[in-house]
Amino acid sequence: MRRLFRAVYGERPAHLLALLASFALCGYAITRLLARDWWGVAQWVAGAALIHDLVLVPLYGGADWLLHKAARGRRRGSQVRIAVVNHIRVPAFLSLLLLLVYWPLISQDAGPQYRNATLLSPGVFLGRWLLITAVLFTASALILVFRRWRAARGNRE
Q: Is the pLDDT assigned to residue 20 strictly greater than 90?
């Protein structure tokens, strides 16, 4: 029976149970979210989809193209070029993801609800986001330098 299930489904039964449980949890979260402000949620989802597809995809597609062009201009092997591009992509992605998630706090447009709920000022988030971004890019650059150093040392031996 297990072999038939795995042949039809492609995974173990536990995988299907975990997937169904996660769908149930997401469904519950959606019903709780929509019970409070369904119109605001619908506007946010539609706006996010439009902004992503019409604004962000061309922006980060163009930025990635420029990054590849800039890395291609140097006389290096393709593996090094790809490593450099990826060591810029990852911290940029994480930084932009943090910017997206915490935009109301970073832009200091959190409103009185945040201050009332936490008794904290949202004014510190811009500096913290910039610091996290600097740390991400610095760590990525150090990892790239270490990897290149280790590869160069390995080639000499």
A: yes
The answer to whether residue 35 scores a pLDDT higher than 60 is: yes
For 37-71, the DSSP string reads HHHHHHHHHHHHHHHIIIIIHHHHHHHHHHHHHHH
- The label of the residue with tokens 């990054």 reads 67
pLDDT mean over 48-52: 86
Are residue 78 and residue 152 in the same domain, yes or no?
yes
Residue 96 has pLDDT above 60, yes or no: yes
**Shared domain check, 157 and 102:** yes
Domain count, the chain: 2
Domain contains 62: no
User: Which pLDDT score is estimated for 23?
Assistant: 92
Give the domain range for residue 89.
74-157
In a domain, 64, yes or no: no
